Amino acid sequence: MAPDAAGIDLLYVSDAGTDDVFVYAYPSGTPKGKLTGFARPAGLCVDKSGDVFITDLMAFRILKYRHGAAKPMATLKDPAEEPGDCSVDPTTGNLAVTNISPPYTGAGDVLVFPKAKGPPKRYVDSAIQYYEFCGYDTKGNLFIDGMKTGNFGLAELPKGQRSFTNIKVSESIEFAGAVQWDGNAVAVGDYERNLIYRFAVSGDTGTEVGVTHLKGGLLPIGFWIEGSTVIGPNDEGANVMFWKYPAGGFHTKKISGLRYPWGATISLAPNS
After folding, report:
1. Domain ranges in the chain?
2. Are β-strands 109-113 and 121-123 bridged in parallel, bridged antiparallel, or unpaired?
3. How far is 268 from 169, CA to CA, in rounded Å?
4. What pLDDT is attached to residue 103?
5. Sequence-separated (6 or more) residues with CB below 8 Å from residue 33
6. Which end of the chain is more exposed for a tag (fewer CB within 10 A), N or C?
């Protein structure tokens, strides 16, 4: 890791092709380091302090790194499951993790680690079998998406509740992509179509309020929205692209040199 990494804003990108996590200065995209030792790094998320969580899918664990650090500061165990994505509740510091149970034939679940520590609480939704991505809003409500028998599912775990509310959307989403609260709506990716839908959620209904077209994208799976920019790791493009958000259109920046980039997150420098 570069000596100045701890003092600047950073972009973290997981690469399932090399089993590494690459770190870049943000927004310039200048390489600053590489985190190694993973079995299959997948989803990334960050807490209010800038600490970064990385789901290590095939090692059944989640690793926590201080901003700009080269070694993990903590490890959370997720035994016999495959953690694919994560999100931190800004109101409590709880860490949510979506799991697909091996060998992709059983139902997965969602684990919530209080204060990002063990032991976790387990949640399941009968309408979702393969849990893909998750994201908290600013009020501590957790949104997840996934698939069951080829059908897309979106659900909300309202803050303080013990069960999911399944959300109906009119759009036909081919495959569940990242989920993130963008400050005004729930952003949900359809990475087969290079789209991000924006939904206003009320009860069990998600009403589309906009759509962002990621032109030039090639399976932008675990995107990350940072203000007026969305960063999309292109799994089939071996690169990471930046687009204007929510305008979309053609990309404004590209970082090349990866193999199968999967997830991304932005960690702002402390006191920045």
Report:
1. 5-267
2. antiparallel
3. 33
4. 53
5. 1, 2, 5, 22, 23, 70
6. C
- In this prediction, residue 102 has a pLDDT band, given cuts at 50, 70 and 90, of low
Which single residue is written with the structure tokens 């589309």? 208
Residues 6+ away with beta carbon under 8 Å from 230: 196, 212, 214, 223, 224, 242, 243, 244, 245, 248
The residue type at 77? K
Other C-beta atoms within 10 Å of 195: how many? Answer: 20
Query: Residue 147, Cβ neighbours under 10 Å: how many?
Result: 18
Cα distance between residue 116 and residue 111, in whole Å: 11
- Distance of alpha carbon 156 from its chain centroid, rounded? 16
Tokens of 38: 């993973």
Token representation of residue 172? 């036909």
pTM: 0.97
Give which of 52, 34, 68, 71 is closest to 259, Cα–Cα: 34
CATH class of 5-267: mainly beta
What does the pLDDT look like over 20-31, one tens digit per residue?
Answer: 999 999 999 999
Averaged pLDDT for residues 118-127: 93
